[in-house]
Design a protein that fits this description.
One of its GO terms (molecular function) is calcium ion binding. This protein is mainly α. It has six helices and no strands.
Length: 133
């Protein structure tokens, strides 16, 4: 009944249909907890975001935010490895190279599975942008 948006209220976003949708949402939620990054995100235009300019701001977020992003990335890498293992188990082909399979996941830097770096944010943004071209 005419109730407006309440300050601090969480707005549910529709599912993007991306196989890494949950990871994307968690990264955004964590980044928005950093005041500096949230301000940059709110003032950035879409081209700044797509070009990777916003990704460079990751170096300025708090240690707590970086630690949480590192955790999220390790969880996502573990999830992808489980998917690869399940796929391997289903086809019983032991000649599959894990690294080549990981390369098909373009939303994170698989060569550095432990820390979330500006390159990871840039890759995540580019993967989402490519999906919606």
């Amino acid at each position: 009944k005419g109730e407006g948006h309440v300050e601090g209220e969480k707005i549910e976003n529709p599912d993007t249909g991306l196989y890494y949708d949950e990871y994307l949402r968690q990264v955004i939620d964590v980044l928005e907890t950093d005041k500096h990054f949230r301000e940059k995100l709110q003032t950035a235009d879409i081209e700044e975001i797509k070009s990777g300019k916003l990704s460079r701001e990751l170096d300025l977020v708090s240690h707590h935010v970086r630690t949480r992003l590192d955790e999220l990335k390790r969880q996502e890498v573990a999830r992808l490895r489980m998917l690869i293992k399940a796929k391997m188990d289903s086809v019983q082909d032991t000649g599959i190279d894990h690294q080549s399979l990981l390369k098909q996941f373009e939303h994170l830097n698989h060569q550095n599975p432990d820390t979330f770096e500006p390159k990871d944010l840039d890759m995540l943004i580019k993967a989402v942008s490519a999906k919606y071209k």
